[in-house]
Amino acid sequence: MMRLFEALRDSAAGWRRLLKDRNVRWLYAGQLISQIGDGVTKVALLWFVYTTTESALKMTLIGVLQTVPPLLFGPFAGVVLDRMSKRTAMILIDLVRTGLLVLVPVLYAFGRLTLTWLYILVFVIALFSMAFGPALNATLPRLVKKDQLIGINALMQSAMTAGQLLGPALSGLLIAAIGAQNVLYVNAGAFLVSALCKFPLRMSGAEASGRRQSAWLQALKDLREGLCFIFVKQRLLLLLMIVASVFSFGATGFVYLLPMIGNQILHVSSVGLGWLWSSLSIGILAATVWLLAIKEQQICRRMWMIAAASAVGGGAVLVLLLNWSLPLAAALIAVIGGSSGLITPLVSASLQERTPKDLLARVFSVFNTGSMAFAMLGMTALGWASDSFGASVSLITIGAAQLAAAAFTMMLLPLCYRLAKESASRSSQAGLRRASSA
Q1: Can you tell me whether residue 372 is helix, strand or coil?
Q2: Which of 27, 107, 154, 428 could be a cystine partner for 345, CB 3.0 to 4.6 Å?
Q3: Looking at the 3D structure of the chain, how many domains does it have?
C-alpha cells in the first residue's frame, strides 16, 4: 500500500512538473479538447451512416477510408512536415479539419449530402489528419528535456484516453438532443479551439529545416534520407518499430472486436459493453499515470517493459475465454488496456531521443505507416476469423499475437544490447573527434 501511495505521489509530481511549462499546458489543453471532440464524432459518424443506410458494410467503409491515407501517403507527409514549422502545420491541420467537418451538417441541411460526398469528406479529413500525429510527436522534444520525454508522451496519451472515456458517452447524449449530423459541429468547434491553443506555443530551436523547394526529386531524396536513418543508421529504432507493429496487430483487432466479444463470449448487454469500453480506457489511463512516476529507462530496459506488457496483455486476453462475470471481465480488460497503454509512450520517447529534430516527422510518419498496416491486417484477418470460425478463435488469435510480440521482443533483446553498445561506441568516438578538432 505504501508503494502504491509513493507511485501515485511521484506520478502527481511528474504531472505538476510538466504542466508548469506554459507550452505544455497550452498543447495539452488543445489535445484534450480535440480528443474529446474526436470521440464524440467517431460514434456520431458511424451512427449517422448506419441509421441512414441500414448497412453495416457501408458503415465500416468509414473506418477503411480513414485508414487508407496514412498507408498510401504517410511517409511523404513526413517529408512535407520536416520542411515547415510543426506549430504552423498543426494549426493549419486543425483549421482545415474544422472547415471540412462543418460541411457535413451544412450539406445535410441543404439536402446535398449524398453518401458519396460523405465518403469523400471523410477521406479528405483523414488525409489531413494523418499528418497531425507526426507533427505532434516532432514537437514534443522541443518542449521538454530529454529525461521528460516518456512523461510528456504519457501525458498526451492521457488526453486520448479522456477522449475515449468521455467522447462516446457525450456523443450519445448529443445524438439524442440535436441529431447525429449536427454533432459534427461539436467536433469542428473542438478542432477550432485546439488550433487557437497552439498559437501561444513557443518552440526551442529552429522548427524547419530551411529547405523550401518542393520538387519531386528533392522530396524523394528527403524520403530516402529518412528511410536510410531508420533502416541503416539506427537499427535500434527499427527494432522498436517492428515490435510496436506486431503488437498493434492484436491490440487493434481487440478494440474493434470488443462489441462482438462482449456479446458472444461475455454475454453482456449494451450497458455492460459500455462498462467494458470504460474499463479498457481506465487501464490505459492507469498505465499513463504509472509512466509519469517512473524514472528514465535505457532503451533495452524499455524493451523488457514492452515484452512484459505484451505477455501480460496476451495472457489476460486468453483468460477472458473462461466466461467471467462482468466485474472480473472488466478487470481483465483494464489489464489489457494497461498493457497497450505502456507501448506507445515508451516507443515514441525512444524515437524522439535518438532522431535528429529535422528528421522527426519523417521517422514518425514511417512508424505510423507500419503500425497502421499491421493494424489493418489485424482488423481484416481477425474479422474474417470471427465470421468463419467464431469469436473464441479470434480471441485466441489475439492472445497468441500478443504473446508472440512478447516472445519476439525477448528474442531481439541480445541484438538490442549489441546495437546499444555499438551506438554508444560511435557516440564516444564522435565526441573524441569533436574534442580533438576543437
Answers
A1: helix
A2: 154
A3: 2
